[in-house]
């Protein structure tokens, strides 16, 4: 049993290496994912920032958590795209004829999503620092932020896996990400929810992005996170579990087709 586990992890590492090479051979993927969130950050800070009252002196600090979520929502569309190409070209079936763990192919794409999105997040934080972002958070708070972002990435990546394995076209494989990218705009990511009309405010305060953004913002500012962190974790874990179940079903259908 131990040997089988070791082989499974080894196969997963090989698949991860394969996907990572694809990413680094086309760095335009990372650049494309970063450009739009960075452009939005520049626009909101230097054009709209003076007209938006958030109750804080540093709008970059207020804005950054939402920008990071938008970057992740953009990045996971490439996971769906690469999975779709592997399915369309018969590469998944080809791997299944080889003596490797069947789950390794799917997990290779999922782990690659974590790595590539972590790189995008790192680049955006560097740009934010140049724009004046400052944090008094300690190492434990930063680790908590990293954990939330990783959980959020995993949850969305499994949604991307469903899209990539179920889509009938390249456009269909990546179009699912548009609502996810738009969701932070109807949250507390850019403005406090108190300034929104009642119906919009109710939606904004009861969707997953708002507690995630609020928890990250509080952690980076070394402020109490209250219940936001638990609500954020519940949303991420709930989405992850449901998406994982449906993604595995879609993968099994692809494997047996």
Question: What does this 3D model show about the protein?
Answer:
This protein is an all-alpha fold and 257 residues long. The chain has one domain (2-256). It has 11 helices and no strands. Helix 1 (2-25) crosses helix 5, helix 3 (59-88) crosses helix 10 and helix 5 (102-130) packs across helix 6. The longest helix is centred in the first third of the chain and has 30 residues, at 59-88.
Main attributes of the structure:
257 residues, mainly alpha, elongated, single chain
Describe, in short, the structure shown.
The chain is mostly helical and 257 residues long. It has eleven helices and no strands.
Gross morphology is elongated
Enumerate the spans where pLDDT stays under 50 for 5 or more consecutive residues: none
Helix content: over 70%
Roughly what fraction of the amino acids lie in strands?
under 5%
Q: Output the helix-strand order.
A: HHHHHHHHHHH
Q: What structural category characterises the helix and strand content?
A: mainly alpha
Largest sheet report = none
Number of strands: 0
Report the span from N to C terminus. Answer: 29 Å
How many domains? The number is 1
* Rounded mean pLDDT score: 86
Computed Rg: 19 Å
Number of helices: 11
Subcellular location: Cell membrane; Membrane
Family: Belongs to the ABC-2 integral membrane protein family.
Pfam families: ABC2_membrane (PF01061)
Keywords: Cell membrane, Membrane, Transmembrane, Transmembrane helix, Transport
């Amino acid at each position: 049993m131990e040997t089988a586990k070791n082989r499974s992890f080894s196969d997963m590492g090989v698949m991860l290496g394969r996907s990572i090479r694809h990413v680094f051979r086309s760095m335009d993927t990372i650049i494309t994912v970063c450009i739009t969130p960075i452009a939005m950050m520049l626009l909101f800070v230097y054009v709209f920032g003076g007209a938006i009252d958030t109750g804080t002196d540093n709008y970059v600090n207020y804005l950054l958590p939402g920008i990071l979520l938008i970057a992740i929502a953009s990045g996971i569309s490439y996971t769906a795209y690469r999975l779709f190409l592997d399915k369309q070209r018969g590469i998944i079936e080809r791997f299944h004829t080889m003596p490797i763990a069947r789950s390794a192919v799917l997990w290779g794409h999922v782990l690659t999503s974590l790595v590539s999105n972590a790189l995008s997040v790192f680049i955006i934080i560097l740009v934010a620092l140049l724009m004046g972002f400052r944090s008094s958070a300690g190492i434990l708070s930063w680790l908590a932020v990293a954990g939330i972002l990783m959980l959020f990435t995993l949850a969305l990546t499994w949604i991307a896996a469903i899209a990539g394995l179920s889509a009938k076209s390249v456009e269909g494989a990546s179009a699912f990400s548009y609502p996810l990218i738009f969701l932070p705009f109807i949250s507390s990511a850019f403005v406090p929810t108190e300034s929104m009309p009642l119906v919009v405010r109710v939606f904004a305060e009861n969707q997953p992005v708002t507690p995630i953004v609020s928890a990250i913002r509080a952690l980076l500012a070394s402020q109490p996170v209250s219940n936001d962190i638990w609500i954020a974790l519940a949303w991420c874990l709930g989405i992850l579990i449901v998406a994982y179940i449906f993604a595995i079903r879609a993968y099994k259908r692809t494997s047996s087709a």
